[in-house]
């Protein structure tokens, strides 16, 4: 079993940064935190990725995209899906959070604030369009399992909120 | 092959598979767009979890059976899910009540499975529990909304709870594989979850201004492969593709 530490060869970082989440194309899989290790062994790259959600249909595509990107850079590779340690939204990098917000998806709050928002209707999620906190939960599940649907009561913009997973 | 462990994994995974199939039936049929999407997302979570379990089972079987074979090509009597999860989507109240009654159990179960000596099962549990927490929030929330809603929603959710109550006790029955796995420190002793389960269910029902059923007559059989009349229809739909076009892949 691996630890929470990532183990990625420096030389591979720029290659893996080119691979993005197919459902959130602005976000690289590195900023998403799904790549847990990538090492070169006997001219072959061994990559370990972890799913955001168990049923995430993007994982198969991400695996194929990683292989294609590495192939393009001249490496054969093997991609393994690991479940432990389980992915958490804490692994999204600050750059990743900014990319999400710019794309129109509110980045996850901490676990307590997340509960307040999803269970008690507290208005603290910032609208990605106008920045107002006068927003309300429309549905606990949005366009994908990892997001909830919100609407801003000031500018009326509907938007997704990336749920906290910890 | 480690037969007890294999059977034990099927016992866990079949619940999620069959419940996932039931929730998936609402795709395009949910009462509102938001609930439709929620139900199908929950279904997707469950199927994702099932894949992890069946991939492990496939490795243990070691005879070439894939995760898809295990999911799609068994006969009705070989499925060991509890009767609760195969009950039909009579109406939205039944859908929510069934899922709520399972979620409370699922969360307690996974909390214990996290401590399993089997590292794969423990890792799967740690992954699943984060998702199931959201499911439990969603269904508890709807229990309260329907129970403490209009006279009609209250009557319907109470009827659904009363009807489904008879399937709750089976969640805490131990199979032969359960006992063997508990003895090895791999499995969860479900009999010990019973009190906490009914306490939690009662708490939500009370908050939802609903009555906790008093009936002590309980149905059982699913864990031994003896299912209700609804199971055959469910499997017919679940297995259609693999039966009609053997070995087809996405």
Automatic annotation (TrEMBL), chain A:
Signal peptide boundaries: none
Domain MIP18 family-like: 16-78
InterPro entries for the chain: Fe-S_Maturation_MIP18, FSCA_dom_sf, MIP18-like, PaaD-like, Zn_ribbon_PaaD
Ranges of residues in domain PaaD zinc beta ribbon: 115-163
Protein name in the entry: Ring-1,2-phenylacetyl-CoA epoxidase subunit PaaD
TrEMBL record, chain B:
GO BP: phenylacetate catabolic process
Domain of life: Bacteria
A GO term from the CC aspect: cytosol
TM region positions: none
A Pfam entry, by short name: PaaA_PaaC
Record-linked InterPro entries: Aromatic_CoA_ox/epox, Ferritin-like, Ferritin-like_SF, PaaA_PaaC, PaaC
SUPFAM superfamilies referenced in this protein's UniProt entry, alphabetically: Ferritin-like
Signal sequence bounds: none
NCBIfam families in alphabetical order: PA_CoA_Oxy3
Protein name: Ring-1,2-phenylacetyl-CoA epoxidase subunit PaaC
Originating organism: Winogradskyella epiphytica
Highest classification ranks of the organism: Bacteria, Pseudomonadati, Bacteroidota, Flavobacteriia, Flavobacteriales
């Amino acid at each position: 079993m691996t630890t929470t530490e990532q183990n990625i060869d420096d030389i591979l970082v720029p290659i893996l940064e080119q691979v993005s989440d197919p459902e959130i194309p602005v976000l690289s899989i590195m900023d998403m935190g799904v790549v847990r290790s990538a090492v070169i062994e006997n001219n072959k790259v061994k990559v370990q990725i972890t799913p955001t959600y168990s049923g995430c249909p993007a994982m198969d595509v991400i695996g194929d995209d990683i292989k294609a990107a590495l192939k393009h850079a001249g490496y054969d590779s093997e991609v393994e899906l690991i479940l432990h340690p389980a992915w958490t939204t804490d692994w999204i990098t600050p750059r990743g959070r900014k990319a999400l917000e710019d794309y129109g998806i509110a980045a996850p709050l901490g676990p307590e604030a997340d509960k307040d928002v999803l269970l008690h209707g507290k208005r603290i999620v910032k609208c990605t369009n106008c920045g107002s906190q006068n927003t309300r939960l429309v549905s606990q599940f949005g366009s994908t399992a990892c997001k909830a649907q919100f609407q801003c009561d000031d500018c009326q913009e509907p938007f997704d909120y990336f749920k906290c997973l910890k | 092959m480690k037969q007890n462990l294999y059977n034990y994994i099927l016992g866990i995974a079949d619940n999620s598979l069959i419940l996932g199939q039931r929730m998936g039936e609402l795709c395009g049929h949910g009462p509102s767009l938001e609930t439709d999407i929620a139900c199908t997302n929950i279904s997707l979570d469950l199927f994702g979890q099932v894949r992890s379990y069946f991939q492990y089972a496939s490795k243990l079987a070691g005879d070439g059976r894939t995760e898809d074979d295990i999911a799609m090509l068994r006969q009705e009597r070989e499925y060991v899910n509890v009767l609760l999860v195969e009950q039909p989507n009579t109406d939205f109240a039944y859908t929510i009540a069934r899922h709520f009654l399972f979620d409370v159990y699922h969360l307690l179960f996974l909390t214990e499975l996290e401590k399993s000596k089997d590292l794969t099962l423990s890792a799967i549990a740690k992954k699943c529990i984060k998702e199931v927490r959201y499911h439990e929030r969603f269904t508890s929330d709807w229990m309260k909304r329907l129970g403490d809603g209009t006279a009609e929603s209250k009557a319907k959710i109470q009827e659904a709870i009363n009807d489904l109550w008879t399937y709750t006790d089976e969640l805490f029955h131990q199979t032969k594989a359960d006992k063997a796995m508990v003895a090895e420190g791999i499995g969860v002793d479900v009999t010990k979850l019973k009190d906490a389960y009914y306490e939690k269910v009662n708490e939500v029902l009370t908050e939802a201004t609903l009555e906790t059923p008093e009936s002590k007559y309980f149905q059982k059989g699913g864990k031994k492969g003896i299912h209700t009349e609804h199971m055959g229809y469910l499997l017919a739909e679940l297995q259609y593709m693999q039966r009609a076009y053997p070995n087809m892949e996405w």
